[in-house]
Amino acid sequence: MSTEDVGVVAALAALPNITPRRLSLLLSFGSPDHVWLALRGDAECAGVHDVANHAGMESVWRDFCSDATAKRYAEACISHEIGVTHVHADDYPQRLAIDHQAPAVLFYKGRLSAINSSAKCAVVGTRSASPMGRIFAEHLGHDLAAQGVAVVSGLAKGIDAAAHSGVRHATDGAPPVAVVANGLDSVYPRHHTGLFRFVAEAGIVISESPPFTAPEPFRFPLRNRMIAALADVLVVVESRASGGSMHTVEAAIRRSVQVLAVPGAPGAPASIGTNRLIAEGCAPCVDATDVLVALGLSHSPTKLVSPESTGASGDLLQLLAQGPLTLDQIVSQSGLDLVTAVRYLGGLEVQGFVAHEGGWWQATAVITMGGPKM
Amino acid sequence: MFASIKSATLVGITGTAMNVEVHIGNGLPGFTIVGTPDEACRESRDRVRAALLSSGFSWPSRRITVNLARSGQRKGGAGLDLAIAVAVLVVEGVIPAEAVEQFSFIAELGLDGRLRTVPGVVPLVAAVRAGTVVTAMGAVPPGLSFAGNVVYADNLAAVIAALVGDGCWTHPSIEPPDADADQSTVDLSDVKGQPVARFALEVAAAGAHHILLFGPPGSGKTMLANRLPTLLPPLVGDAAITATLIHSAAGLPTGVVIAPPFRAPHHSSSTVAMIGGGDTGMRPGEVSLATSGVLFLDEMGEFAPATLDALRQPLEEGVVRVARARASITLPAKFLLVGSTNPCPCGGGAPGACVCDESAINRYLRRLSGPLLDRFDLRIALGRPAAEQIVSTELGECSASVRERVSRVRDLAIARGWLNADIPQDQLDAIAPLSNEAINLLRDALESGGLTGRGYHRVRRVGRTIADLRHGGEIVQEDDIIAALSLRQSLNTRSKVKL
Known about the structure:
- The complex is a heterodimer.
- Chain A is of the alpha/beta class.
- Chain A has three domains: about 5-90, no CATH class; about 115-295, Rossmann fold, CATH 3.40.50.450; about 310-365, Arc Repressor Mutant, subunit A, CATH 1.10.10.10.
- Chain A contains 18 helices and twelve strands.
- The longest helix of chain A is centred in the middle third of the chain and has 16 residues, at about 130-145.
- Helix content of chain B is about 35%, strand content about 15%.
- Chain B has a five-stranded parallel beta sheet with strand order 11-14-17-10-18. Chain B has a four-stranded mixed beta sheet with strand order 1-2-4-3.
- The chains are: A alpha/beta, B alpha/beta.
């Protein structure tokens, strides 16, 4: 696409009060150039005028469609290395084109081919996830990527970020796909910049919002429908009773995408939504194997590696199996002295059987898939 | 017509000798005080007049002018009452001028003529280099070197009687300070279980390492912090005198301060209360009051960020410089900082028990983060003690026996020149040499990102203290460093997902 075309397509997506539906309608009347000229009044197209009239934006859009606007958007896309494609373009991903709510214009950073390749599993969940939820999502992201399944997620805080940082730890994993709600010229939340860059380099980050678009709340459900549209299977790791993840689930069900939910402790606030899904008949997911089965892929059965369960290490693991403990509690309850306890814990941590954060130690072996790693 | 009487005023914890001049002359009857007095000082007029009348003297109905020389410096407080009253009586001829020459007077007067002690009386008395100080009963604790120059009286009439030779000064019964009287009522043996936290307190006391305790409500943070002063050796020599001066200047009732001070300001405390300053006298703040003892900030996250930031200079330099338009003073502020905080706004506790939003936790912890958090050599996570520990009747080791070890390590450190927490970076290799295994361990920790460059030096200082406690050997061993690293726990609850 030429620079002018990029500017025109991006500017169309940025029309004031445009909606995904109106944009699709506009582009159904012809090429972006044609629509652009029609909006300016430089070309005749009854359909375009109808849409503009109906939206009550005719004069606003006419003023907006200037060469300066197109130039501004073209420059933004080029300086931020944002790619642009649209439904009439050859490179528009087949995968999205067949969706009934496909975005008419798509912005991306990374390789478009990543969308068409391999089986895809969306991993979504609450932003205020529990530590166990995040660890699970991280392991799941890692294991799926290692098995060649692309992980699709929304780069939000909590589960989304954990799933993709799991992919980051996999060597030669399937390319990750992220769908975000705001313009690709900025990263939201900002501290995910590193993760954003990783996904854009290893796979692709897409958005239907043009540059300069803020992450307004209404954009997230729209983002979620694209996640559902891209996924072959949707895994909800943790979700509250209502929330963004539930929108994704609805969108997935409408598209006949299979939904898996990760069971949580009864009554745990972060798992109320997922437990409800399971109660309503959704298949549970306890490790990557369940996803592979749902995708119909051949798979090698995962092994649960059990740590040596004798000696002081075993005693410590048994102690931690009952729940997270502080170092103080471990020393007090195991009867070991501080240095010995720390030595054993350090050994177990290197093997991946225990993890510690915020001063708390906990056993991780119960959810370790395919042996300890990371 | 004129008399000049010696007294003293206070700024910070330093007294300055000064003169109270009184002139009584003809003119419209009146009583003015000049020489930049503050409000309490100006009110002397009414107290002095009432006290003189109550003590059976007449009040001259002439023009009385009191000058507090030198006039440039602002004078505060009621400590000049007695000097003004005596000066009036000298001018009136009740007392011969020669009788008061060798005396300085520092006391507040009651309306009935009784003498009261004033805040800062100890530094005020210390400021008088020559002669004898007359003050209220019990104002200066016996046992201070300059207490010998002090005479006492109950009321104004007794002062006059002693000065004119009709009576004698009251001498307080000199009883040696009771060693057990200051003994605190809390003891480390009250703490059940919690071996790591106990050890951390011992390390903190021995090496003067600042310590942060974090954990859910009910995990014993405050109980542990309260017991830290009981592990410190009693104050002796200059430390005791400085502490006594500070306590007196702040107006706290005090004998000689021997027990290490324990200050626990509430989290609503203002920055001035914490650092010092305020009215004319520049009252010492909590950081100075905690000198040679413990400053305990409970619920650190609730303190105003500006107040916490203001702690940085004292933590860095051991003194606090308070500057105001009229005066600028330097106060000692060398304390052991103990902080406590919940790990998050809900009090949470164990992973999974917390219901806080991630951003809420970050907001909560951001107040502590950065430079201040860096100053804590020891950071200990606490959980709620198990039921069997709570009901256990078994007593832990008592403070006295821990204090013995602490004193031994402190003596070792002082012989080397620095308390362990204060060892300068360039002296670390000489004072705290590492074994090869310890070097490898620290290198691994640095490479894995678990330890920052700044943290490295702090861990070595803590390692020195632990080595002193564990074996007293010259070389810091691997086990000492393992223990030091394990006492530096991460407060960042969401460090697992590194983004």
